[in-house]
Known about the structure:
Helices cover 17% and strands 34% of the residues. By secondary structure, it is of the alpha+beta class.
Amino acid sequence: MEIQNKELHRITSTAIIRKDGKYLIVQRSLNKKAWPGKWTVPGGGLEVDDYINTPSFPANQWYNALETSLKREILEEVGLEVGELKYLTNLVFIRPDGIPVITFSYYCDWKSGEIKLNDESSTFKWVLANEVEKCDLIPGIDDEIIEVDKILNK
């Protein structure tokens, strides 16, 4: 696969959300560029609006923009508020259109809200860590959920 622009990357983040010992997964809409119809966890891309209108220190530098973006994405995609985001890992993949994507994975606990899906997902379910291998997840998401379950159940 050829990369279209070797200096342009899309930055995204995902959240493994836990509630009552189960983890939220959502099924991607069939119109998504990458992995249509596959199961995944909520998340999305960093946008300039996630930081540009907030205070910066020093000038034109922003801390925690990725976390701000992820909390916005979670609220937009599934209607939930979450607790503290904790970093898990990161990965890079190349979309079918040739754009490299850097994804930062976090985990957190559900804080409030009821699931309200936007048009990016078709359905959702809460699953136990030992059930994720039976789901048609984007590669690697099952391993991340299992890793988070081990961290949280120490």
